[in-house]
Amino acid sequence: MTTKSSGLRDTVDALLLSYRTDGRAQHVNRRFLPSREEIVSILDVFFELLFPGYFGKLDITDENLAYHVGNLVATLREKLDRQIECCLCYRDETNAHVDEPRCRAHGRELTRELLTRLPELRRRLVLDAQAALDGDPAAGSLDEIILSYPGYRAITVHRIAHELFLLGVPLMPRIMSEWAHTETGADIHPGATIGERFFIDHATGVVIGATTHIGARVRIYQGVTLGALSLKRDQSGRVVGAAKRHPTVEDDVTIYAGATVLGGDTVIGKGSVIGGAVFITSSIVPGSRVALDPPKLRIGAPRELEQPADDFDI
Questions:
Q1: Side by side, which strands form the sheet with 267-268?
Q2: How many CB atoms are located within 10 Å of the residue 17 CB?
Q3: Among 14, 181, 189, 286, which residue has the least CB neighbours within 10 Å?
Q4: Cβ contacts of residue 292 below 8 Å, gap of 6+?
């Protein structure tokens, strides 16, 4: 055996030992795991159905619309059936007992239910797009928002993932939301409840936690965090605490860039405006205006044209 092949064998043996001695972060001797790539492709079909003519096939007319939508719904149903079934079996396998026929039947029921929600989902997304157009003077049209705004893409994926979350589908909603996080810079947990006409301007750095409740006509800007306060941990190091860990934001609230709002008992009252960079851990009464005092700026005199003798350019 050459030195090179011997080195490879040592690496293989060491990895095998690692797999055997630590069962975490491996999926050996288990059958069920949803496909991340297939779930992303499911989102592509959702986008085509929710926004016909913008994504996928572009030359949509009244004559071919019904045929096109029928094909997309059939494709979506097949993909969802397969991946939801896999997600349900994955959960059962994690609990040491898999009933494949039950997973298959339940998966098809959940798919049917999700498909019935598509018209309402689209209605809410149209309102979100209109809120973006109404709230951003830089927006030229709904077309611009649907095709290019990262905040709107994040909201669209969230509304899809949230329906799956409500239906109790494991893993898939989080895969969707984290894909959107990578694509848009906005991290919205699929468990967060968000009302109508929601607008995220710029999107980058926005974090919305799992038990956040957001009302209607809310607008937030880049870098806003709706998060949890520090919670206790059990002996294994896992976080334990109240079911409601993240804040409630009531209707008609605006939260400007860089603001942080924390805690499950924290309520931002209706119609409030939260200024940039504030840090809030207690409730704000309705109609409030919250802002930091302006910082004190120090502005030095311009540099002299001639540098002193001990100044160096390197």
A1: 193-194, 213-214, 248-249, 267-268
A2: 10
A3: 14
A4: 275, 276, 277, 278
Longest dimension (CA), the chain: 85
Sequence-ordered alpha helix ranges (H) in 95-117:
100-116
Strand arrangement of the beta sheet that strand 273-274 belongs to = 199-201, 219-221, 254-255, 273-274, 289-290
Q: Which residues of 229-251 are buried (b: 16+ CB within 10 A; e: fewer)?
A: eeeeeeeeeeeeeeebbbbbbbb
Q: Write the pLDDT tens digit of every residue in 166-198.
A: 999 999 999 999 999 999 999 999 999 999 999
Distance CA 242, CA 264 (A): 8
Measure the CA–CA gap between 76 and 67, rounded to whole angstroms.
Answer: 14
Count how many Cα atoms sit within 13 Å of the Cα of residue 312 in the half-sphere of its side chain: 2
The predicted model scores a pTM of 0.90
Question: Residue written as tokens 């797999």?
Answer: 19
161: number of Cβ within 10 Å: 27
Pull the structure tokens for residue 114. 């999700």
* DSSP state at residue 310: T
DSSP state of 192: -
The tokens describing 204, both together, are 């980058």
